[in-house]
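Lay summary. Proteins are chains of building blocks that fold into shapes, and those shapes determine what they do. In this project we predict the shape from the chain. Here is one chain we studied, written as its sequence of building blocks.
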Amino acid sequence: MSYPEPRYLGEEGEVNAVFRPAGQEPDLVRPGGNRTHYLATHASTGGEFGLYRVDMGPKSPGPKTHFHKAISESFFVLSGEVDLYDGDRWITGGPGDFLYVPVGGLHAFKNDGDDPASMLLLFSPGAPREEYFEQVAEMAQKGGKEFGEFLVEHDSFFVEQ
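And here is the predicted shape, written in a compact code that computers can read:
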């Protein structure tokens, strides 16, 4: 195995790091105590990956079972307990637990507990997930063909369970 081909061809390096302080307000706030922090977006990483912190309030339903055709998704539990579906069974993940879902892998998550939980979501390669996060609830209420097209546009394919 070898490293990928170089993408930076300069000789001196660049000053281009991006710092986000821990106390920065969430980018998206939803009812029930749910907050999403856009740590590293498709735009800020040049499409390499997307990294988001999701803070879930107690008894927060997450997305139903689905898969992605173009991106993998990884989950790292920071605090509390998150119920993670690995395509076969539900697993209760606690702080430090990690789940990797390759492209095409069935998965879901939720917080069934009485306490808040927090986790990191990593998408690779990066995709513009911010629009999905910001509009999915509204689009789901509309339903129908428009919602179906929205899901396909955002590489989200839900399955009946």
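What the prediction tells us: The chain is about 15% helix and 30% strand.
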